[in-house]
Amino acid sequence: MTDLFKALCLALVSFPLPLSAQEPPLQLYSGTYRAGSDGYRVSFELTGNRVELTVGTHDCLGQMNGTLMQDQLGNYVIMDDDYETTQCLIALRPNAQSATQGSFDLDQGPGCTYHHGASCQFSIGDLQLQPGS
């Protein structure tokens, strides 16, 4: 059963994520990316292809570790290290509304509440690389 679940998760990563032709290419560099407002904060730490996501509000705190991967069209997804016990894929999309080059949005898929509970989520817009990180 575990091998079947692994195969399904890997198959999900291979499906292309929809991107429109107008969106700029996503440029990711190792470092710390942050976004948030009104007490809601997400931190995205990238080292090579390893990702650590942290989310926090006054009601929740969550963390996920995973691997940054690309699908066949070059779109980025984060595959959760714990995919054997939970399915949590997170898509990274360029943020076309941001004036900052390299800004992106996170969109979490199902199964991510395991990492942060029901009161918050990893989905957020306008993550930007922090100076000096």
In short:
This protein is mainly β and 133 residues long. It has 2 helices and 8 strands; from the N terminus they run H-E-E-E-E-E-E-E-H-E.
What does this structure look like?
It is built from 2 helices and 8 strands; from the N terminus they run αβββββββαβ. It is globular, with a radius of gyration of 14 Å. The longest helix has 13 residues, at 2-14. Helices cover 13% and strands 41% of the residues. The protein is mainly beta and 133 residues long. Mean pLDDT is 77; it is low at 1-24. An 8-stranded antiparallel beta barrel has the order 1-2-3-4-5-6-7-8.
Question: What distinguishing features does this structure have?
Answer:
41% strand; 133 residues; 13% helix
Chain-wise SSE layout:
Blueprint: H1 2-14, E1 31-37, E2 40-47, E3 50-56, E4 61-70, E5 76-80, E6 89-94, E7 104-108, H2 113-116, E8 124-129
Antiparallel strand pairs: 1-2, 1-8, 2-3, 3-4, 4-5, 5-6, 6-7, 7-8
How are the strands ordered across the major sheet?
1-2-3-4-5-6-7-8
Mean pLDDT: 77
Low-confidence stretches: 1-24
Number of helices: 2
Estimated share of beta-strand residues: 35-45%
Round the Cα radius of gyration to an integer and report it. 14 Å
The shape, in one word, is globular
Overall helicity: 10-25%
How many strands, which pairing sense, and closed or not: the largest β-sheet? 8 strands, antiparallel, barrel
Secondary-structure element pattern, one letter each: HEEEEEEEHE
Taking the alpha carbons of the first and last residues, their distance comes to 41 Å
The counted number of beta strands is: 8
| Class derived from helix and strand content | mainly beta
